[in-house]
């Protein structure tokens, strides 16, 4: 960021002038302002971080080459091997879970029989692995040689194995939905239905045989989430229009409950709670424009595969978001945006008739 600022690449003159960019800028300023008004100091820090990320995002979207998409996925898949061994060592007790109490005593929660590797929480690690599993599927479909296909298949299975070690129950639904969408988007409708049937059957059989970790705690899990959602809804009723900035739940929960957690554990509820109707409307416009971008990309057969990748990643966010807000973290949001922000340049390359740009 310092280098980019020093070279003038982050100056206002370099900012995009379209409405989507203006809406995103307005949203981040709104998030900062509303946090200051309600003395949500954690929200202020996060909003400042969002503004910094926004500056870099403008530069990245302008500078990222279309072939960078391949580099992101390949580097991620290679790195996932290291993460798998890290997760295995944590799972088998060779190394201990990271201790974050130096940040806050409230963060002394441990996760028995769950791994987080180098991530802040097993659920954040799970979302990263969900992304990587889709990367592996993308590269498997795209590969021409059988050796390449076998390599990407092995990497995908490694990530699915690591995903099982996280003990994230929502991930099974996420993978089923994301794989179905991926196959459907590239026109493999029979394979989409087959993947839905096979993965669902495997999940049911594994559940019946007791192989799915933490599913014996579902009653407690729903009770726990229910209490969080009830608290969030009560807080939302008291400030429906404006919210109180990022992580509003953590800022206000003590007025309604003794259940401490950082967010509302539902992406739709948490966005409304944190930013209110006004902020949510500002955020909805860029998402609407993203859908329009996807629609335009669908007109180009050469973009069918990367489009399937991006739509599948979005499905991961919303499916996992039913029970958590795992996208709201620098690692998960970073890898997602690194892929999504290449979409405009992909479309531009296709429109200009470039060949072999992927």
UniProtKB/TrEMBL annotation:
<feature type="domain" description="O-antigen ligase-related">
    <location>
        <begin position="155"/>
        <end position="283"/>
    </location>
</feature>
<feature type="transmembrane region" description="Helical">
    <location>
        <begin position="193"/>
        <end position="212"/>
    </location>
</feature>
<feature type="transmembrane region" description="Helical">
    <location>
        <begin position="328"/>
        <end position="347"/>
    </location>
</feature>
<feature type="transmembrane region" description="Helical">
    <location>
        <begin position="150"/>
        <end position="166"/>
    </location>
</feature>
<feature type="transmembrane region" description="Helical">
    <location>
        <begin position="21"/>
        <end position="38"/>
    </location>
</feature>
<dbReference type="Pfam" id="PF04932">
    <property type="entry name" value="Wzy_C"/>
</dbReference>
<protein>
    <submittedName>
        <fullName>O-antigen polymerase</fullName>
    </submittedName>
</protein>
<dbReference type="InterPro" id="IPR051533">
    <property type="entry name" value="WaaL-like"/>
</dbReference>
<feature type="transmembrane region" description="Helical">
    <location>
        <begin position="44"/>
        <end position="61"/>
    </location>
</feature>
<keyword id="KW-0472">Membrane</keyword>
<feature type="transmembrane region" description="Helical">
    <location>
        <begin position="73"/>
        <end position="95"/>
    </location>
</feature>
<feature type="transmembrane region" description="Helical">
    <location>
        <begin position="124"/>
        <end position="141"/>
    </location>
</feature>
<dbReference type="InterPro" id="IPR007016">
    <property type="entry name" value="O-antigen_ligase-rel_domated"/>
</dbReference>
<keyword id="KW-0812">Transmembrane</keyword>
<feature type="transmembrane region" description="Helical">
    <location>
        <begin position="267"/>
        <end position="291"/>
    </location>
</feature>
<dbReference type="GO" id="GO:0016020">
    <property type="term" value="C:membrane"/>
</dbReference>
<feature type="transmembrane region" description="Helical">
    <location>
        <begin position="172"/>
        <end position="188"/>
    </location>
</feature>
<keyword id="KW-1133">Transmembrane helix</keyword>
<feature type="transmembrane region" description="Helical">
    <location>
        <begin position="303"/>
        <end position="322"/>
    </location>
</feature>
